[in-house]
Known about the structure:
The protein has helices at residues 29-48, 80-87, 92-111, 163-166, 173-189, 199-208, 221-227, 238-248; strands at 2-9, 14-21, 58-64, 67-73, 77-79, 114-115, 124-127, 132-134, 141-142. It has 249 residues and is an alpha+beta fold.
Amino acid sequence: MGTVWRAHDEMLRVDVAVKEIRFPAELDAAERAGQVDAAMREARTAARLRGNPHVVTVHDAVEQDGLPWIVMDYVPADTLGATVEHAGPLPVPRTAEIGLAVLDALVAGRELGVLHRDVKPSNILLAHDGRVLLTDFGIATHVSDPTLTGGGGSGGTPAYMAPERLVGGAATLLGDLFSLGATLYLAVEGVAPFQRESIPLTIGAVVHGQPPAFTRAGALAPAIAGLLAKNPAGRLGADGAQARMRGAA
């Protein structure tokens, strides 16, 4: 959806990150307007979470020549996905620390009525100073948003989406927690639990399949397994997940 540039704020004399939103050339005027709205929603959503240590701070959002730009903290970091791809699975304690940080951001968002809806390894930053940050609120929304229901147009990444969302159910905090579970599985085991050769096969694996047996998760396995419960009614909630991850950290 966009490119993030490192820039320098000449007034404040600090480096910042500027997200340039790019649109496909084939979009018509109405579709472009919708994309602009989505970008501004991302900025507003993240701005509501200012002060949370696990969310990238948004400073400003502007529209220039019909294109939106979002100004954020510049955070030297690698994504969780890139880290696992290049260095392999993470140790259990580090994975648990990452899980606790992302969980804190998700709970803080839910307390403000905000759901992320696209938790995945590429949206988690491992800052070079040790911080863990949840980013990319481009499809996050308020709980009152009418787009919360329906799997087809609600956004997200199939390999990490909760099964109830893939069959048209509502987005909830429990759905974000399923996505966190799939993300932590990749972090500690080194593979995405439901990724298959095609989107239909991936969706089928999320809805009906089970992840491969744990080989590295150790003390973190009960937390991840609880988060990956297919039925949200039986899924591990935020408090239970926090307790189990603390035990593994």
